Every structure is written in structure tokens, then in C-alpha cells.
Amino acid sequence: MTGRGSPKTKKAQRFHLTFPFPVISANKLWIQKGKYRMPSGFYKKFKKQFFGYLEERGYAKGDLNLKGNLKIHMDIGFSNKRSDLDNGIKGPLDCFVAFFGGFDDCQVAEIGMKKHIVAKGDEYFTMLITRTRRKI
Fold it and tell me: Is 7 exposed, middle or buried (0-12, 13-18, 19+ CB in 10 A)?
């Protein structure tokens, strides 16, 4: 998928898309119930929004062909200066893997992230995922 997420007919080997809604913090992904960890209501809502946005853009499960080691870059627009940048990758990456399948986040060899402060209501995140020759 090239550009800002324009789907192609062939399986793409890269993904680049900006999501116009806030990223979910890793601290809000799971809840503990006794011995079990379960997805939180926040995570379920985020996942539904993430999947819906991909589908609106014409993506379908299996559209990507991400074999080998991967490099991820994320730009995240937070409205709160105290938001931790490192909490922003786990939720979107797990949703990405769940939607497209065919690969696993253990293939990630490199991560780059940038934090931006934006006005309340203007939160966003951009994901760029490509293959890398870097060995793990």
C-alpha cells in the first residue's frame, strides 16, 4: 500500500496510513479478572474503530504481504503533553496484526516514533510499515 493508504489489487509490501483518531495507551488495553487478562472495553472500541477505518479505505484481510523482518515508524499526535510515546505502539500494532494477519509482531526489527502535541480533538497517529534487511 503506497501513499496515504490507497489499496491496490496486488498484495502490497508496505503500509502507510494516517488514522484521524487518538491512539489507545498500552495501559488501557487489558483488564485483570481473577487469574485472567481480558481485552478492556477501551481496547474493543479502539479495535472496532481501527478495523472500520481500514475497511472504509478499501482494505481487506490478506491485502498485505509482509514477509521477513519489518520496520515500523509512527507519528503520534497527542493532546496531552504528559502522554508517554512508548505506550502508543502496542494497541495499533496488535490491531494491525489482527486485521491483516499473515505475519506476527515478533517480525518487527526496528521501531521509530515521533511525538507531536496537537489540540484536543485533533489527535491522530500515522503508521508506516515496511520490510527491512536488518537481521534480528
Answer: middle
**74-100 burial code (b ≥16 CB/10 A, e <16):** bbbbbeeeebeeebbbbbbbbbbbebb
Query: What is the amino acid identity at position 95?
Result: C
**Integer Cα distance of 11 and 66 in angstroms:** 9
Dihedral through CA 47, CA 6, CA 125, CA 64, nearest 10?
Answer: 60
How far apart, in whole angstroms, are the C-alpha atoms of residue 13 and residue 71? Answer: 12
59: pLDDT strictly greater than 60: yes
Give this prediction's pTM. Answer: 0.85
Task: List, in order of start, the domains of the chain with CATH numbers.
Answer: 14-131 (3.30.1330.70)
pLDDT digits (tens, 9 = 90+) for 77-95: 999 999 999 999 999 999 9
DSSP state, 61?
T
